[in-house]
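Exercise 3.2. Students should predict the tertiary structure of the chain below and write it as structure tokens, then compare their answer with the key that follows.

Predict this chain's 3D structure.
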Amino acid sequence: MVNLINTEDVSKSFGERTLLDAVSLGVEDTDRIGVVGLNGGGKTTLLEILAGLEPPDSGRVSQARDLRLAVVTQRVTLEGDQTVRDAVLAGYDADYEWAADPRVRSIVEGLGITALGLDSRIGALSGGERRRVTLASALVRELDLLILDEPTNHLDVEGVRWLADHLLARKVALVVVTHDRWFLDTVCTRTWEVVNGDGWRGGRGTVEQYEGGYGDWVYARAERAKLSAAAEEKRRNLARKELAWLRRGAKARTSKPRYRVEAAEALIADVPPPRDPRELHAFAKRRLGKTVIELEDVTLCVGERELLRDVTWRLGPGDRIGLVGVNGSGKTTLLRLLAGQRAPDAGRRVEGTTVRLAYLTQELEDLPGDLRVLEAVEQVAKRVVLGKHEMSASQLAERFGFPARRQWTPVDDLSGGERRRLQLTRLLMAEPNVLLLDEPTNDLDIDTLQQLEDLLDSWPGTLVVVSHDRYLVERACDTVVALFGDGKVTDLPGGIDEYLDRRATLLDAPAATPQVEKPRSGAAEQRAARKELAKLERKVETLHRREQELHDALADAATDPDSLLKLDSELKAVIAEKEDVEARWMELADAAE
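Answer key:
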């Protein structure tokens, strides 16, 4: 292993606030490091110090000689008068040269660069498009180390998976800040947690280091909480709740040895499932009645493009739906139609009389800048009931990252991420029973995401989420639907994995890509293992649902001995099959890493 970057006793402050205090770290050539922590806690500052973009106040940063380094942070921008071709393909004289290089061609196609127009000016692109061009310009280079700050922002689910696969297949060290937990767990082999403020150990400006990705980091947090907290407090601990969700699904199986898996199982043995779907559905029916939002024979167009054609789609009480599709497929337009902000071009939208709808848009709405944070929340309501929980405005604001001292900050002084959290807090204070969320994870750190998911676990209403965050969709939603550009809303029983499989089929359908490099046997085996893993995961989900149905049926048949015997026999068979499938999953997990 070769050491690429070292920091020795590095400190950095802004005003009276210390972000990093005597931090010593090292990056080696085999590292793929995920950096996590609260918004404003110093993650981006740490990346910029590593990259040499920001000098430390004290301490020393040393880089290996002739280090080939690329950096994509919020501060790294391209010249507005450059063309996309100049930014990404400057080293190639003709298109056939880069098109003949499988790696470069994959980057250009995977990030949708050709769709932007290679001769387009950077200054004419949107912020998200410029970020994709900046990322592509870094990836096409031969590198020893890649430093990325929120690279998954502005990428759809398909783009996030492409980026993960690209980084896994490439021999390059990586340091990345992202709130995308699936990406962290898939790509990273180490985790740095920037602890600034009231951290788990009370540290200020420290960086805690862990082996493994997101799942292993969550395990470590939950383990510390268990050692330091009382039994009831442990039950409420969000890290343990998140770990319980991770461990119950085959998708989140860790690459750690079996004894760590068993330790994780023991740690969350008494944690109940995140939510009771039957109870929430019954509660939602009482609040909403039978009719929520219905689209009947709807046609929806944007310009000359037809997004929906004669679609009938009914949202029922308690439905929890994740909506996916490539960027530009019409997800936001469909949400606006559901919210009543856009009329259909044909057909009709029907809304139930008891519906109280809240819609979180991607744009930051006009907030009352003349008020303080708590006043802005109390402007909506003083108290709120979310499921079984009643909270004051101050308590809900604290759950979304506004501690007591921060609640008296003027709204005009808030950062973009804080304004997003305030927007979400005000939305929930209105006690809606239908919630439409458009990319709610934008600008939210992982701790805030866990708080949001914890609230949604007990929220008894109808929910539609558009997000590229696979963890949020898989955790908060019961069903997934997709827009494939065929004028329909397609139900996906297999979830996001089925969506990605269908997208791959659609992309492969026109013609095979010419001059495809013959994969190495190891890579082919790895892809085959991942493909079988996906099938096994879907099988586990099916068996798990059947197991739950049989448990419910056993409860209903308590007075019928014959039915009990039959159901019990079937349940044992389902559990045995599920254990066999999970055992096979564990065998394949290492091959797919």
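Discussion points: The chain has three domains: 3-233, 277-503, 521-592. The first strand starts at residue 3 and ends at 14.
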